[in-house]
Amino acid sequence: MIQNPVLPGFNPDPSIVRVGDDYYIATSTFEWYPGVQIHHSRDLVHWRLLTRPLNRASQLNMLGAPDSCGVWAPCLTYADGLFWLIYTDVKRYGRTSTGAASGGASLRDFHNYLVTSPTIEGPWSDPVHLNSSGFDPSLFHDDDGRKYLLNQLWDHRPGSNRFNGIVAQEYSVTEGRLVGQRVNIFPGTAHGLTEAPHLYRRNGWYYLLTAEGGTGFQHGVTMARARALLGPYELHPDVTILTARDRPDVALQRAGHADLVDTPDGQTYMVYLCGRPLRNRGTCTLGRETAIQPMAWGEDGWLRTADGRGTPQLQAASPALPEHRFDAAPVREGFNDAALPLPFQWLRTPWPEELFSLAARPGHLRLFGRESLGSQFRQALVARRQDGHCFSAATVVDFEPQHYQQQAGLVCYYGGTKFHYLYLSHDEALGRHLRVMSSLPNHVQADTFTEPVPVPSGVPVQLRVEVDEERLLFAWRVDDGAWNWLPQQFDASILSDEACAPGAPNFTGAFIGMACQDMAGTGLHADFDWFDYRARAYLVNPKAGG
Hints:
Layout: E1 2-3, E2 15-19, E3 22-27, E4 32-33, E5 37-41, E6 48-51, E7 70-79, E8 82-92, E9 109-117, E10 128-131, E11 138-141, E12 147-154, E13 163-172, E14 177-186, E15 195-202, E16 205-212, E17 220-226, E18 234-243, E19 253-262, E20 268-275, E21 289-297, E22 303-305, E23 315-316, E24 332-334, E25 346-347, E26 356-357, E27 365-368, E28 380-385, E29 390-398, E30 406-415, E31 418-427, E32 431-439, E33 447-449, E34 453-454, E35 461-468, E36 471-478, E37 484-485, E38 490-491, E39 511-518, E40 525-535
Antiparallel strand pairs: 1-23, 2-3, 3-5, 4-25, 5-6, 7-8, 8-9, 9-10, 11-12, 12-13, 13-14, 15-16, 16-17, 17-18, 19-20, 20-21, 21-22, 24-40, 26-27, 27-40, 28-39, 29-35, 29-40, 30-31, 30-39, 31-32, 32-33, 32-34, 35-36, 36-37, 36-38
Site (Important for catalytic activity, responsible for pKa modulation of the active site Glu and correct orientation of both the proton donor and substrate): 136
Protein name: Xylan 1,4-beta-xylosidase
GO molecular function: hydrolase activity, hydrolyzing O-glycosyl compounds
C-alpha cells in the first residue's frame, strides 16, 4: 500500500521517469541550494533522497533571487543513453494584484535550461539556455528521435491572459538550440492558469497533461489529446482528471501538476503535488508535497483515476513490484564528514564556503556570520525540510557574541518575511542572552521580539523546538540540565503558503535549521555540534517530556 504523500514536506512539481527497475522523481527546490531534488525508488512505495544535480556556479547562481523564485518545475526524462533535466531559473516574480499567481504582475524573468548526464548521480553538464518565454518547461522525445520543448507561455501585455497557453518547439541536439517556430498547441480551459505541460505518445495519440486553476485549492490536472503533436487537441470528456477543488473533505488538497510513469507490466501511475492543511488553521506549513496513485486507461482511450472518482488518495494501491526498503534516516545528524548531510541545504549562493565550513572545527558545522535573516544574497542559514505537522528538533551552539549585531541559533523558517528565530546575542546591560524574533507576514506588526533571557557565557547552549500543528514552543539549557521553556506560544501556521502579504510569491515550505548573522561585517562564527530532528505524533503537553 502506498501512503501519501510519498515525498513529505516541500517537494513540489514532481517529474517521474523509470529506467529499468529504477524510478526517479525530480522536484523543485526554488531558492534552496543545490538545485533540484531527485528521489529514488524501486517499488513506488519507499523512496530515498539521492542527489541534487545543480551544484556549481556554472549551472546555477541564485544570489538576489526573491523568496520562492529560483528553480521551478524540473522535468526529468531518459533517452539515447542520457538523463535529460530541464528546469526554470526564475529571477523576477513581481507583485500581483491578488494573492494568487494569476494576478496583475506583468514583467517576469524565467530562464529555461537543459543539463544532461549519463548517470543519475552525475556529474551533470553545464546548462544549455533554451528560452525565456515562460516557465514549467518539459522535454518530449518522440518515437522518430526528434525532441520538442514545451512550456507555459507568459503574456505580459495589458489585459491579456498571463497564462497564455502551452507552446511547443523542436529542439536540435546537434545544434544545441531550439529550431523552427514555436506553436501554441493548447490555450487551456476556463479553469485558467494553464501550466505544467507533459506530453506522451500512446496508441497513435499524443496525450497532453497540464495543470490548471493555480497552485492553491483550485488546482487540478487537465488532459487533452491529438493525432499530431502540434494539434489540434481535443479535451478529455471530464476535462479535469484529478483534483480536490470540490472535495474539501479529502486529506490531500491542492492536487495538480502531475506526470505519468508506466510499470514494466504496463500499469500507469500518476505523481502529483498536493498539500496537507493544518486542521485548525487550514494553512499548508509543509508546502506542496508529492503523492502518487494508480490510473486506468478506459475503453474510450482516456485516462482516469483507478477508482474513477478523480480525487487524490491518502492511501493507494501499490504496483506488483518487489518491496524495496531503504535505511531509515538518522534522528541525529553529526557533522563528521567532509560533505553536509544530504537532508540539509542553504540559500541561493553557489559558494557555500562563504557561509559555512565542516573542516574549520572537525565534528562541527561552523557558520560564518553574514547578512540578516531576510537577506536575498549571503545568508548563513543551513536547514532541512519540516516533513510532518508535529516534530521535535534540537541543536547545540557554541557562540560568544560581542554585541547585538551578532546572532546565532535555531530557526523555523519559510522565507525572509516568515520565521521564528531563537537566537543568542549580546547586550551591553545583560551580556549574553536568548530571545526570539518572529517575522509575521500577515500581522499589523511585522517583526516582534520576546524579552531577553540571560544565559551564562563560556558554555555551549542547547536549543530546542517543539511543533504541534499550529503550536510552536522553544526551550534551552546548558550542559544536560533541565530544559528552560520560554513562556510564549508561537504561531507555526505563519510558516505556510497561505500566510503572506497579498500578491507576494509564496510557494516554498517550512524548514528548520541553524543560522548565524554578523551584521557588523566582522564574520564572527558559530559552531554547531549536532542537529536532531524527529517527526512524531501530536503531544498534548510537549513540556511534560522535560
